[in-house]
Q: What sequence folds into this?
């Protein structure tokens, strides 16, 4: 029995390696990785929006033109991962906008395509009804 298993393991390893190099499997892995980046960015945008909102309550909110530096100073990565926290998972800068008409703050990632102001953007929005800015 052990001899039979010992003979099968190398064949399974070769078959698994061949399957892992197939274009279809690579495409599926890329799709999962992209979905993971979207989820990570959604989570990070939620944290960033909340942090900006809380800083807005005491009047120390960041200005849009200094947003990258604000994020580098105030955002921490998990598990000591070294990365620029002012950039999303695709390496594009997060943006901050205060919409005075709608009375809200908006933090945006350009999303997977790296282009702002289209359907794949990821946004975090907080209302600013009781605040002046």
A:
């Amino acid at each position: 029995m052990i001899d039979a298993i010992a003979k099968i393991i190398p064949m399974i390893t070769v078959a698994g390696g061949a399957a892992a190099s197939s274009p279809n499997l690579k495409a599926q892995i890329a799709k999962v990785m992209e979905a993971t980046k979207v989820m990570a960015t959604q989570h990070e945008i939620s944290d960033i929006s909340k942090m900006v909102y809380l800083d807005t309550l005491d009047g120390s909110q960041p200005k849009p033109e200094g947003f990258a530096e604000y994020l580098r100073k105030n955002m921490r990565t998990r598990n000591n991962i070294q990365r620029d926290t002012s950039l999303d998972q695709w390496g594009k800068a997060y943006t901050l906008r205060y919409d005075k008409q709608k009375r809200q703050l908006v933090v945006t990632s350009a999303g997977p395509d790296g282009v702002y102001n289209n359907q794949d953007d990821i946004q975090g929005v907080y209302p600013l009804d009781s605040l002046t800015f």
